[in-house]
Design goal:
single chain, alpha/beta, four-stranded mixed sheet, 52% helix
């Protein structure tokens, strides 16, 4: 009888022991909340599951990642970091300098990853001698997305200058169609501004004015004319843009309620998610630049320091899932971007992605790769914030171009 009781007790303890030996969950803070973004993330988490780990989702949407970053600050202040975090621009470098991120050098060396990524990415995934994050993709910012049926109906072709963009918009507006779909969020407005700045004035101006913060360029007639064009673009936006999410603006183009959207190629993910096809349902073309360039944004994941060996192994599994070649292919087909790895063929990707891939290759050779200002790849946050505040104020008020330029120069000088 005692033996039977002991056996029963031992059996009843087995589930508890099994639970204790389970792999730790991989918790990630990120800001992918639209339908296409959620589907893309699942490609990575499905791969993670094959390695025996469960994904714990901690999505925080809004403000182009700013809300997620605030959530991370709160977690770190409480001594409770997540397993991993999605980083944009200089965010990863800032946290690496705080001493909270793991060095990923061993993983990079073990897997040969340093040979697989674009040289321009190293400035954001490497801090000093240490790799501190793994990139999943490269988005191109300077795209215009258009409803093909509307372009065909009104005999519109791809505009080759910003004056032509305005003319196209006026034609659509006269026909009762919203010319340009967007919201009033500062980052959406800033995307338009930085495209105009680079398109009208060239990559060298962009580098000097926006990256180097050269005061002569910041206060130049070129910058005044950039704001002048932005004012014309404001005339193409409907009054209902207040509070409009970027994905809602994409849906307006997809549904034929608007003719165009200027947005990074994450917008393409929304079109594809609706079953639309490039070339037949929607059009993609770079914003009209006098000198071709490629304005990029990447999503990368950093790993936080931990004393737990099981959690380190879980982090390794996550990083290797992110960098897996098949994952990068499948993820980016859904997300709308192209792989961060440059050793992956995109021959079976859609026409927009193939154009992006070819333009990136050309820009790398011509030194015309530009980091996107909006997502923090052109400058540090304190300077990006100045651009964002001034541009948003200009777009939503009757501020003059000259006053905007003065506010921009004063703000940058105060932030230095």
């Amino acid at each position: 009888m005692k033996l039977k009781m002991l056996l029963t007790a031992s059996i009843s303890l087995l589930p508890i022991a099994a639970v204790a030996q389970e792999n730790p969950k991989v918790e990630g803070i990120h800001h992918w909340v639209s339908e296409s973004e959620v589907k893309a993330l699942k490609v990575i988490t499905d791969k993670l599951a094959t390695k025996g780990y469960t994904w714990q989702d901690s999505a925080v949407g809004g403000l182009s990642g700013a809300n997620a970053l605030q959530a991370l600050r709160t977690r770190l202040a409480a001594g409770n970091p997540p397993t991993t975090m999605q980083f944009l621009g200089f965010e990863g470098l800032d946290w690496a300098n705080e001493g909270v991120l793991r060095s990923l050098n061993e993983l990079y060396e073990k897997n040969g990853w340093e040979k697989t990524i674009s040289p321009q990415l190293e400035a954001f995934v490497k801090n000093g001698d240490d790799y501190i994050s793994v990139p999943i993709n490269m988005h191109r910012q300077n795209w215009i997305w258009a409803n093909k049926a509307l372009f065909d109906k009104y005999g519109i072709s791809e505009p080759k200058s910003w004056d032509e963009v305005i003319a196209v918009g006026q034609k659509l507006k006269a026909a009762g169609v919203v010319p340009l779909a967007m919201g009033d969020e500062p980052w959406q407005i800033l995307e338009v501004f930085e495209a105009i700045a680079a398109d009208m004035n060239g990559p060298d101006f962009y580098k000097k004015a926006i990256v180097d913060l050269d005061e002569d360029e910041l206060s130049s007639d070129k910058m005044v004319k950039t704001f002048d064009m932005l004012r014309k673009v404001r005339g193409l936006v409907d009054d209902g843009f207040t509070g409009r999410d970027w994905a809602v603006a994409s849906a307006m183009v997809a549904d034929g309620k608007a003719g165009m959207q200027l947005m990074g190629d994450w917008a393409k993910g929304e079109f594809l998610n609706k079953g639309l096809k490039p070339g037949s349902d929607f059009l993609c073309f770079p914003t009209p630049a006098q000198t071709p360039y490629f304005k990029f944004v990447i999503d990368a994941f950093g790993l936080f320091k931990t004393d737990s060996e099981p959690l380190v192994l879980a982090q390794d599994a996550w990083a290797e899932s992110v960098m897996d070649p098949q994952v990068q292919r499948d993820f980016n087909k859904v997300k709308g971007s192209i792989p961060a790895r440059i050793d992956i063929s995109v021959s079976d990707f859609d026409a927009c992605a193939q154009r992006s891939f070819a333009d990136r290759d050309r820009a790398q050779k011509n030194d015309t790769m530009l980091g996107g200002l909006t997502e923090g790849f052109a400058n540090q946050p304190q300077f990006t914030g100045v651009f964002s505040d001034v541009v948003a104020k200009f777009f939503t008020t009757d501020m003059s171009s000259e006053d905007a330029v003065k506010a921009l120069v004063d703000g940058i000088n105060n932030a230095k």
